[in-house]
Design goal:
Blueprint lengths: L11 E9 L2 E9 L9 E5 L2 E5 L3 E3 L1 E5 L5 E2 L5 E4 L5 E3 L4 E4 L3 E9 L2 E10 L8 E5 L2 E5 L3 E3 L1 E5 L12 E4 L5 E3 L4 E4 L3 E9 L2 E10 L31
Parallel strand pairs: 4-12, 14-21
Antiparallel strand pairs: 1-2, 3-6, 5-10, 6-7, 8-11, 9-10, 11-12, 13-16, 15-19, 17-20, 18-19, 20-21
Length: 239
């Protein structure tokens, strides 16, 4: 710039010259590539799931650095340990092929994590819809909220004994356990999805900043001194 502020544009070398009254001096500038924070761990969710043959289940994965911060813009590669049992797309969508157990691995920059997928024989009455309650929840960061998913048949009858898989659309905002327990991570909005036999139901979660802890309750009161003998007309201080 006119004030001598140098901005690196691309890697390489350049000469910056300052001129005044036909006199000039140059300085050599080397522009280097900004260091990239390496991937330390891969977090995959859910870590285990069941899906019927012919149905699908969605897995999600994020890359994190050594401090546990989510790294954006990193490529996640997906693979299956046994494609005759389950396959997985480049977006983490797992398809059940035949009954059995397969490992679905998410990897990035040499780090990887594997989820266990159990493919089952489809039941006689398939799941038509999944109801998630409550449908909307507000929870503070660091706090939890319990969701419930009910698979239903085409007639609306609740179906028991069906496997439910829970996923979060953004693990940096909120996570969800295998039982539907949502934990707020940071302020924002996220969709929690329950999946059963390829059918889904969702709940909208709003995570707010964690509220300040309540003040501790009074358990007892101490008075000091416990005894005193003031002289008539004089004072004594109690605390």
């Amino acid at each position: 710039s006119e004030t001598g502020e140098v901005l690196g544009v691309a890697t390489g070398s350049a000469s910056i010259t300052a001129t005044s009254e036909n006199r000039s001096t140059s300085v050599a500038i080397t522009v280097t590539q900004q260091p990239v924070v390496p991937v330390d761990t891969i977090v995959i969710a859910p870590t285990s799931a069941s899906v019927d043959a012919g149905q699908t289940v969605q897995l999600t994965a994020v890359a994190k650095d050594a401090s546990g911060n989510v790294l954006t813009g990193r490529t996640i590669n997906w693979s299956s340990s046994n494609t005759s049992i389950a396959t997985v797309s480049s977006a983490g969508l797992v398809s059940g092929v035949t009954p059995g157990v397969a490992g679905i691995t998410a990897s990035s920059e040499g780090q990887q994590t594997t989820a266990t997928i159990t493919v089952m024989t489809p039941p006689a009455t398939p799941v038509a819809t999944v109801d998630v309650t409550p449908a909307t929840v507000t929870v503070g960061a660091g706090q939890t909220a319990q969701l419930t998913a009910t698979p239903k048949s085409a007639t609306g009858a609740p179906l028991t004994g069906r496997s439910i898989t829970w996923i979060s659309s953004n693990l940096a905002v909120a996570t969800v356990s295998s039982t539907g327990l949502v934990t707020g991570v940071s302020a924002g909005s996220v969709t929690i999805t329950a999946i059963s036999e390829g059918k889904t139901g969702t709940a909208s979660i709003t995570v707010t900043s964690a509220p300040p802890p309540p003040p501790p309750a009074v358990a007892s009161v101490s008075v000091t001194p416990t005894t005193a003998s003031p002289v008539v007309g004089q004072t004594v201080q109690l605390t």
